[in-house]
């Protein structure tokens, strides 16, 4: 009968093991059921939460805008988002008033649809609001979009970022023209190598207003190039039209500038252009300010000069290409050079006035201007 005892013990062990497995499976099933129920509850609660209200401020002169509006409505319906608000800019108001109205109506996100001018206008109204600006770039330069690595030639891709992107605070820059050249608010001024040095406080200044920039403000050659770009050519060939314009200014005179960085003593310099940047990437893979970071709380300043005619410009172009690859040429005897520094505030004065621009929008011919950084003042939506 001993074998019967062992069979009984074995059966008891198997039964206990089966019971343990059954208890374990029951517990696991209960946990899974609770998890599924919790997931469904969370999903139901999420569906009950109202989606964020999004407003679009669109430049109707852009050819893609008409079709884009229908695409936006379809995408929002598919994503179960509230129907977006839609505003269009005008010549009289390029987007500031429309953005303020969108914020007043409760928009959590305002989307700038257009070029750099529309982006600047929307940003100006949104600074300090704590709410988010998004972009559907439809312009020639699309400067901010390039520096944020957003889709530039893909409105549908940009729209996906609008709906499902993440938010980050970035810096903005402000420029105030303290003094215009005679007729400079709508005219061009020149500078001479023979012009005498002038003290900062020697002449009365305009009080003026501050103009926002998100990428680069410039005084000198770069602004003259932008001002002289043919609009019809730009419509045909895009940003390449700027280079055609630039060729006409290669033999212009160098400007004499007095520059003050923060609270340091001013320094005198002969320059082709002075760039003050929040970030530094331009169309065509050009990086003018390789150390510029859009959320570091400072502006990057580049003093650019050439001598020796075409040879100097060729060396300068090589310098731009090298720094875009992370290489620097620190030889002191260069005839085409870019000198970099950083600042929270920059003040510059030039004799006679030079063309000034902010993100490609012209300010006119300025004798003296000041730029400052507004750290973390704007929230933007990125991929």
From TrEMBL:
The chain crosses the membrane at residues 6-25. GO terms for molecular function: kinase activity; methylglyoxal synthase activity. GO terms for biological process: methylglyoxal biosynthetic process. Keywords: Kinase, Membrane, Transferase, Transmembrane, Transmembrane helix. This is Diacylglycerol kinase. GO terms for cellular component: cytosol. It comes from the Bacteria. InterPro entries: ATP-NAD_kinase_N, Diacylglycerol_kinase_cat_dom, Methylgl_synth, NAD/diacylglycerol_kinase_sf, YegS/DAGK_C. Residues 99-180 form the DAGKc domain. Pfam families: DAGK_cat, YegS_C. It comes from Cellulosimicrobium arenosum. The keyword Kinase applies.
């Amino acid at each position: 009968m001993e074998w019967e005892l062992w069979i009984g013990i074995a059966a008891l062990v198997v039964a206990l093991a089966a019971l343990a497995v059954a208890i374990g499976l029951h517990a696991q099933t209960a946990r899974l059921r609770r998890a599924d129920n919790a997931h469904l509850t969370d999903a139901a609660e999420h569906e009950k939460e109202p989606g964020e209200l999004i407003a679009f401020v669109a430049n109707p002169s852009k050819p893609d805008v008409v079709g884009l509006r229908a695409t936006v409505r379809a995408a929002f319906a598919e994503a179960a988002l509230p129907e977006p608000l839609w505003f269009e800019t005008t010549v009289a108001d390029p987007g500031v008033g429309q953005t303020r109205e969108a914020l007043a109506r409760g928009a959590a996100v305002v989307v700038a649809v257009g070029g750099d001018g529309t982006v600047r206008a929307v940003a100006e109204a949104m600074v300090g609001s704590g709410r988010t600006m998004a972009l559907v770039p439809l312009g020639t330069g699309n400067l901010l979009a390039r520096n944020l690595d957003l889709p530039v030639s893909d409105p549908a891709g940009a729209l996906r970022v609008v709906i499902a992107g993440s938010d980050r605070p970035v810096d903005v820059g402000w420029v105030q023209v303290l003094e215009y050249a005679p007729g400079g608010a709508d005219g061009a001024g020149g500078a001479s190598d023979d012009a005498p040095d002038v003290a900062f406080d020697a002449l009365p200044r305009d009080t003026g207003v501050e103009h926002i920039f998100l990428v680069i403000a410039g005084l000198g050659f770069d602004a003259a190039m932008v001002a002289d770009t043919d609009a019809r050519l730009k419509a045909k060939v895009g940003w390449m039209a700027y280079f055609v314009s630039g060729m006409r200014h290669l033999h212009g005179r160098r400007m004499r500038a007095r520059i003050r960085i923060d609270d340091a003593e001013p320094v005198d310099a002969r320059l082709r252009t002075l760039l003050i940047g929040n970030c530094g990437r331009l169309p065509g893979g050009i990086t003018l300010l390789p150390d510029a970071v859009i959320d570091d709380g400072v502006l990057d300043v580049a003093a650019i000069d050439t001598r020796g005619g075409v040879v100097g410009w060729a060396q300068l172009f090589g310098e731009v290409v090298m720094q875009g690859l992370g290489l620097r040429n620190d030889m002191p005897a260069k005839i085409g050079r870019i000198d970099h520094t950083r600042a929270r505030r920059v003040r510059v004065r030039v004799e006679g006035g030079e063309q000034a621009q902010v993100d490609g929008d012209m300010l006119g011919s300025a004798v003296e201007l000041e730029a400052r950084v507004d750290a973390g003042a704007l929230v933007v939506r990125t991929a």
